[in-house]
């Protein structure tokens, strides 16, 4: 794959949240392969250390910071340590999310509603508030939403609602941060990561998910990384406030 990749992020600094595995890791790797200095983060130091090691072994410029996205001090640290190390921020990818309950909307506990809002939506806003003073003309933000933003799915109804909110957040921030900074989103379909294990580990459920797509397969983390890298890059310099659905042709109308 590496030989097909351009170097669109040469000299740029990119922060990716929740990036020690899965889609976030693939985005960090892609931006790094394209020349970015990449700051990866997640809740657990051990995961951060291991992911840094993996990316360094591929020859990438990478720096790791522990950041639980709903922890104010961690968010501050993530931004400040990036500035201390690299002096600027060109790209922020907000990728962290939680789906703490499979309950129907009308049975979801208030504490779960709060957690969904806090991690999936509020933490993105607060992280970007922290990052904004360091962003400059040409900086770019990518928010990871979900196909569930468009299509309510049993076991993830309220999660989907928070992901719909992110489509609105991308539009609102694109308006607020224009003309210097672009803000877009990616809405992944099902990708076999830990997060989606309840869909992708069971052979029968997985087959149904594959057959629902026009392309007859699940997505890969690399599919999502390619879209995120495009939106973050100058190739998308006339695109803002948009969401790219990367879901194998699943319907995606609100
Ligand atoms: P994943 O493979 O399970 O990876 C989750 C990553 O997030 C890990 O690095 C984890 O590391 C970190 N993390 C978890 N909670 C965190 C928190 N509160 N603060 C900071 N880091 C945290 O998940 P994924 O499937 O790649 O999902 C990434 C994004 O894609 C999410 O926004 C998800 O909603 C979206 N998405 C996924 C799918 C799919 O099918 N996989 C589909 C649509 C959208 P630690 O444990 O060390 O924190």
From TrEMBL:
It holds the Pfam family adh_short_C2. It comes from the Eukaryota. Belongs to the short-chain dehydrogenases/reductases (SDR) family. PANTHER family: DEHYDROGENASE/REDUCTASE (SDR FAMILY) MEMBER 4 (PTHR43943), DEHYDROGENASE_REDUCTASE 4 (PTHR43943:SF2). This is Indole-3-butyric acid response 1, SHORT-CHAIN DEHYDROGENASE/REDUCTASE A.
